[in-house]
Amino acid sequence: MADQLTLFFSRVLWGFCMFGMGFVHNWSGLMAARFFLGVTEAGLFPGVNYYISCWYRRDEVAIRAVSDLFIAIQWPDLRHA
Fold first, then answer.
1. Smallest Cα–Cα separation from 17: which of 27, 29, 28?
2. By the 8 A CB rule, do 47 and 6 touch?
3. pLDDT in the model for residue 56
4. Are 13 and 40 in contact (CB under 8 A)?
5. 8-state DSSP, 26
6. pTM score > 0.70 for this model?
7. How many C-beta atoms surround the C-beta of residue 68 within 10 A?
8. Distance CA 14, CA 8 (A)
9. Which three-class secondary structure state does DSSP give residue 54?
10. Percent of the chain residues topping a pLDDT of 90
11. Is the pLDDT score of 29 beyond 80?
């Protein structure tokens, strides 16, 4: 239960940080917002891996995590291809 709450609050705080970035007016404010965004994103990747491990077998978890990571990395490039 604690892992689910951690993932939930990490996602909610990430959303607040993204929302707050829309109200930034200078460079130092943007860097502060990006720092807090990075802090909240630090809990997302392990949380998503835990969530994936609840559904897939141990040998499939690595394939799913790596494929999702590669898709996330390549997604911005696919829009401009």
1. 29
2. yes
3. 79
4. yes
5. S
6. no
7. 14
8. 10
9. coil
10. 21
11. yes
How many whole angstroms separate alpha carbon 15 and alpha carbon 53? 24
Contacts of 77 (CB under 8 A, 6+ apart): none
Identify the CA nearest to 11 among candidates 35, 52, 58, 45: 45
Query: Given the structure tokens 């990571």, which residue do they identify?
Result: 69
d(CA 58, CA 22): 40
Q: With left for phi above 0 and alpha for psi between -120 and 50, is residue 57 left, alpha or beta?
A: beta
- At CB < 8 A and 24+ separation, what contacts does 44-50 make? 44/7, 44/10, 44/11, 44/14, 47/3, 47/6, 47/7, 47/10, 48/7, 50/3, 50/7
User: CB within 8 A of 10, min separation 6: which ones?
Assistant: 40, 43, 44, 47
